[in-house]
TrEMBL record:
<dbReference type="GO" id="GO:0004650">
    <property type="term" value="F:polygalacturonase activity"/>
</dbReference>
<dbReference type="InterPro" id="IPR012334">
    <property type="entry name" value="Pectin_lyas_fold"/>
</dbReference>
<keyword id="KW-0732">Signal</keyword>
<dbReference type="InterPro" id="IPR000743">
    <property type="entry name" value="Glyco_hydro_28"/>
</dbReference>
<keyword id="KW-0677">Repeat</keyword>
<keyword id="KW-0964">Secreted</keyword>
<dbReference type="GO" id="GO:0005975">
    <property type="term" value="P:carbohydrate metabolic process"/>
</dbReference>
<dbReference type="InterPro" id="IPR011050">
    <property type="entry name" value="Pectin_lyase_fold/virulence"/>
</dbReference>
<keyword id="KW-0326">Glycosidase</keyword>
<keyword id="KW-0134">Cell wall</keyword>
<comment type="similarity">
    <text>Belongs to the glycosyl hydrolase 28 family.</text>
</comment>
<keyword id="KW-0961">Cell wall biogenesis/degradation</keyword>
<dbReference type="Pfam" id="PF00295">
    <property type="entry name" value="Glyco_hydro_28"/>
</dbReference>
<dbReference type="GO" id="GO:0071555">
    <property type="term" value="P:cell wall organization"/>
</dbReference>
<keyword id="KW-0378">Hydrolase</keyword>
<protein>
    <recommendedName>
        <fullName>endo-polygalacturonase</fullName>
        <ecNumber>3.2.1.15</ecNumber>
    </recommendedName>
</protein>
<feature type="signal peptide">
    <location>
        <begin position="1"/>
        <end position="20"/>
    </location>
</feature>
Amino acid sequence: MDKILFLAFLVLLLVPCRNAEPKFPREFEVLGGLEILDVEENGDEEFELLEFPSWESDCTSKNLVNVEAFGAVGDGTSDDTQAFVNAWKQACPTPKSVFLVPEGRRYLVNAIRFRGPCADKLEIQIEGTIVAPDEPKSWDPKNPRVWLYFYNLTKVLFQGGGVIDGSGSKWWAASCKKNKSNRCKGAPTALTIDSSSAIRVKGLTIQNSQQMHFVISKSDSVRVSDVKVSAPEDSPNTDGIHITESTNVILQNCIIGTGDDCVSIVNASSNIKMKTIYCGPGHGISIGSLGKNNSTGIVEKVVLDNAFLRGSTNGLRIKTWQGGSGYVRAVRYQNVMMQDVSNPIIIDQFYCDSPSACQNQTSAVAVSQIVYRNIIGTSRSQNAMKFACSDTVPCTHIVLNNINLQRKDGTVETYCNSAAGCGYGYIQPSAECLASSDKDIINNREKEAEYLIHTEL
């Protein structure tokens, strides 16, 4: 089956557009800007990568700050928190420092806030394992939602073959999503980069987080590559990489399998580029949720190119709450293969992650200018494509190009509610339920071909 899917995927990539030079309405012009978001294969930017342990032969140009020199034991049971704090106090203000967590050891540390600004060319080299306390009762009460928290950094490189392990099993057992008799409360994020810029994260493994694994918050120009995120499929709220209030973020060559969204992109985020992403298990690659508690949510200019999703409960998902406001627009998903995925393509403006039923409301986060191109694979559910949109704020300008979604046992179909758009190339299942784009742009279905996206998008 895998070989058949792969060959079909290659065929889809070669299918030409029926209209070589389609005309496109002004409302889609923002999508043209997505071309500049394509990820370059060799984009190491200005970082001088430290190929560990090259500091041994280049000790004159790097200031090595080894956590063991500050008392870290690394036996997995001794508390090394203060040693990490003291090492940071040395490394942060010293130019060309390397904050080193040596290989072959397990360093037990509680919550730490690593604050900048720091001197130029700081490198954080993680080769060993950093492990969190496994007992929620022993957690630092001053830091209930963070574990390794980095704030106000510029031009900092995180890299290494090491592991950040959140020891999350007891946290998961205490979650209200695992047991409804438990009180619902937040848990720490394993790694947070907040209010920072020009950050590079390369090669790390983040696993078994108490809740979210890796959060990028209020930051600009962040590149994440060759990162692995891992947690059991039944671990609650363990998003892999969560992007919030951030711009110009690149995720490349990442392998993510968790109990929640592999990638989640939420409010005030734009210019997000994802290339070569493996997702599964998990809840898919998601924009949202947005608009909870009548809030405003804005996400735009997002590109996913080349992804493989396997066994996830959703595929490419946009989720918003009723009663919200704002918009999701200018999103392009392309060259995606799915295997045994529920809801491979889904827009849900009626999202409700609540123990009680959500109230019907007329306002909604607007969803428009969403492009799906070269999407292939197998669906676990009958609705391989689902566009569940608001009657008062419909989804508009949805474009499908070269879609081939099948089901091992049975047929698949497309569900639409208040969704407008068009398709070209091969479309399976048929998306005839998509209304033509709104009446101010297209007056009848015969004109749809004028508004198709060029295959170069």
